[in-house]
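[Automated response] Your request has been received and processed.

Submitted sequence:
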Amino acid sequence: MSCGVTLLNPKGGYYFVFLSGVPAFRKYDAAGTLVFERHIEGVEMDPYVGRMPTTWPRRRDGGTEIPVVPALVRTAGVDPDGNLWISLVAPYTYVYDPAGDKRRTLQFRGAGIIAPSHFFFTRDRRVIVSPGCYTFDASGV
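Generated structure:
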């Protein structure tokens, strides 16, 4: 079983982004009907996906061993235009448009490379990322 985050889309509906397991996200309309599902793919993710476990040991006699699947997504956010921003364990961010197509691959730089753990979008088309509260121009996505 994978865990994930639900993100409201300001244009209506919501996204569900899987944090662990096969990297993917789903878009739902306001009624909760699935619109589409997309895998999160790119050369930046290939080494991480290649190391994902494919089998887990069986429990024996009520053992307490629980398989832990490492997260491949750090966080995600939705900008005012309904674009989905996904921060990966690889220090890259993928930006998907409302149709589910990947529009950009970004790498944030401040005092070094930043792997965002949170996004905040302003009305004047800026994105603030943490750690560090760095501000970047988010227009042109």
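Summary generated for your ticket: DSSP finds one helix and 13 strands in the chain. The first helix runs from residue 46 to 50.
If you did not submit this request, please reply to this message.
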